[in-house]
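Renewal narrative, Specific Aim 1. Our central claim is that a sequence can be written position by position from structural information alone. The example that follows is taken directly from our test logs and has not been curated for this report. It begins with the structure tokens describing the chain, in the order in which they were read.
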């Protein structure tokens, strides 16, 4: 067999594994850009500019929602939150369904809420869940017989005295279980 090439001796399994490991270590590592975690990323704005905030309880998620409200709506959110907190000491807060919720303090009130607000394209809508029982009744009607709304537009002044009176009345009524 004059044309036969001499065979290389086979490497032992240990030497073969060591060679593969050395070759892998010599290659530059590829670093894929990782997406930012949800905690550091800016919230997504849904239709109408409503911030998408994960369901959570307490003041922190409500403040995150308010901070993420676009433009003039953030000022309205801060003002509403301040008026509610001043009117109802110890008010409970949460974010559910991408809206801040407010509930009266108390053990029997755990999952009941009296007010919420939500961003729309041209206004912020405040929902009083038992608004039909408030005096005077808030102006916005609903398909639900008990719910009444207050729409706050960009250049409209908030009647703080009336809003505070509604908040105090609403907090004394049975809340909406959610």
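The sequence written for that structure reads:
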């Amino acid at each position: 067999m004059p044309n036969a090439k001499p065979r290389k001796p086979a490497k032992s399994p240990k030497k073969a594994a060591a060679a593969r490991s050395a070759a892998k270590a010599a290659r530059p590592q590829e670093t894929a850009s990782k997406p930012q975690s949800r905690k550091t990323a800016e919230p997504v704005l849904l239709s109408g500019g409503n911030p998408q905030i994960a369901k959570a309880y307490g003041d922190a998620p409500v403040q995150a929602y308010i901070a993420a409200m676009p433009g003039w709506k953030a000022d309205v959110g801060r003002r509403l939150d301040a008026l509610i907190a001043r009117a109802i000491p110890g008010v409970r807060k949460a974010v559910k369904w991408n809206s801040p919720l407010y509930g009266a303090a108390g053990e029997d009130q755990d999952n009941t809420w009296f007010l919420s607000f939500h961003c729309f394209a041209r206004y912020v809508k405040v929902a009083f869940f038992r608004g039909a029982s408030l005096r005077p009744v808030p102006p916005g009607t609903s398909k639900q017989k008990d719910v009444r709304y207050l729409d706050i537009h960009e250049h409209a002044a908030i009647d703080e005295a009336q809003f505070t009176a509604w908040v105090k009345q609403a907090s004394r009524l049975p809340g909406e279980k959610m």
